[in-house]
Design goal:
The structure holds two protein chains of two kinds. In chain A, the strands form four sheets. Chain A has a seven-stranded parallel β-sheet, sandwiched between helices. Chain A has a three-stranded antiparallel β-sheet with strand order 10-11-12. In chain A, a hairpin with a 2-residue loop joins strand 3 and strand 4. Chain A is an alpha/beta fold. The termini of chain A are far apart. The longest helix of chain A is centred in the first third of the chain and has 20 residues. By secondary structure, chain B is an alpha+beta fold. Chain B has a four-stranded mixed β-sheet, with helices on one face. Chain B has a four-stranded antiparallel β-sheet with strand order 2-3-7-6, covered by helices on one side. Chain B has a two-stranded antiparallel sheet with strand order 9-10. In chain B, strand 9 and strand 10 form a beta hairpin. Chain B is globular. The chains are: A alpha/beta, B alpha+beta. The interface between A and B is medium-sized, with 12 and 16 residues.
Chain lengths: 264, 402
Amino acid sequence: MKIIACIKQVPDSEAKVRAEDRKVSWGESPLVINPFDEYAVEGALQQKEAQSGASSSLSTVTALCIGPESAREALKHALAMGADDAILISDPALDAERLDTLGAARLLTAAIQKIGDVDMVMFGRQTLDNGAGITPAQTARLLGWPMLGLSGQIKVQDGNVSVERVIEEGRQTVSAKLPAVLSVVQSIGEPRYPSFMGIRKASKANIPVWSLSDVGASAPEPIVKRTELMNPPVRDTAVEIISGESPAEIAEKLADKILAEKVL
Amino acid sequence: MDFSLSQEQQMTQKMVREFAQKEIAPVIKEYDRKQEPIPFALKRMGELGILGLPFPVRYGGAGMDYVALGLACEELEAVDTSLRVVMSVHTGLCGMTVLQWGTEEQKQKFLVPLARGEKIGCGAFTEPGAGSDVAAMRASAKRDGDSYILNGEKMWISLAALADLALVTVKTNPSARKPSEGLSCFIVDLHSPGVRRDDIHGKLGVRAGSTGWINFQDVKVPADNRIGEEGEGFKITMSAFDHGRYTVASGATGMIRACLEASVSYARTRTTFGKPIAEHQLIKEKIAKMAQDHEIARLLYLQAGWMQNMGKRNTLQTSYAKKFATEASFSAANEAIQIHGAYGFSDEFDVERYLRNSKGAVIYEGSSEIQVLIQSGYALGERSDKPLRCELPAYDETYWQG
């Protein structure tokens, strides 16, 4: 079974986003593997392990990422977690500002088709930077494969994949024929730490870089354009400590304040 | 001069940090209050390979270098000292000493299960009446055919109650010309008949760590368990201290960092006289001192780790690193409490635990006073490194990871 885990390199979760010169800036924040994508890698590795026991054929996990040279670090994290290999899609003609979700889906689709014989493609539910969460569905559409979104526990049997989803009314099990695209959520299980064997492998890994011509694609034209980019207005806040003789008195003053400020 | 860390070192650092922050930080306060070791900590550190971090893969280890070991200790102690203490005694005192002095058979028998975390090790040198003065120890072993019979008591032994194996130094020749020439080292199975042990309670700090005593009464130890030759015990113990001190130094560096981070965070949010206290010059001075000390401590232990990687003796450099980092961590914790004001005096914040934990390291693995004697000995030409029969092997990536 051949599984692809699609990952992205994003700014650390503590980074603060700012609009600067009409561009999005994350400051000097360190770049990390998108935390939601760690669940995709975890899910892929779980399936590899499950299939290795159930089937005589070898299962593999390939981590796939679009990004600049620095995105190798995110791929190395996936390798250290246990992915068998990794591929970086990178090209000087790619401009991160102009690559929207559909553009990314087109490139990923081209790479997945180039890899060939893929059974399952896994994504995290969304990215931490743009957070649109629609690349998995767009990729499925372009591949012409079924899409199982927001998947929890995953079971593969007889060429079918079934996943459990938590919905408002309870739990729902949905299934599809393989090959399929999945986006996974936290209930798949906590991502494993990189192992030392994985760290040794990742640090020595020579990650292949596929250019646009390697995947037979041109730089996608964005269909979503930012017409304006601005920072939210600075909120002016003040702190007031309410004092009183007793808790009841303080509570009364607080209630009066809340009503006066029209908070309630 | 290249100060950058390798990819492996950086990934090791990140992995250990994530483990400590995700799994230990949320529960440490509870176990520190209860004065109990975190029940899953040793098991998880074994499963993740942290316990065997600097040992060759062929001996069950993770195949990382000595610098990576220091980085791991820094991350562990940035969360709690009890985690780093495990590395000091299991990995440093016990495992690394077997790596240095053990025969191939002994490495297979003892180091492999230690590196895999299947067995837990500790180092038993200190006695009720002998600490830094190692040669004054009274515990003894007498040869009896293919075995030795051990008697005596060891005290202030980290992991005494939890370990399976202990590297124990005892007197084998009471009539040796110099007391230091009459000592020998053994790996003792702590499940052997005649071994009694328990934890000591009521410690000032490291309350989530196991510290105890071990009593040996006519304990039969196979002669094959003797590490090194008879009479080499003092040299072996000093090697063990080099390894232990390195982990203490790097760990204490993590403690300084924890104090710095806690202080910066608090100073930015706490206001007095109409502004955050971080804007008051006297607070800035304390924070600058912590930041500077962290940098110095880090450079000192990285130097010692680099020397280990190169196969160079580093007793003096490790002594510098240990003394500086432990004293600076005690000072940083003290100032962190001062910055936190009355809140720092309660266990609502971590800094009071940092202060309690930091004091031990100024005493154990050779007190600051002993470090002064070592350092002045080198400076005055009274002491020099003589070649050892067995040196700690230099880090060789091909051998380590092959």
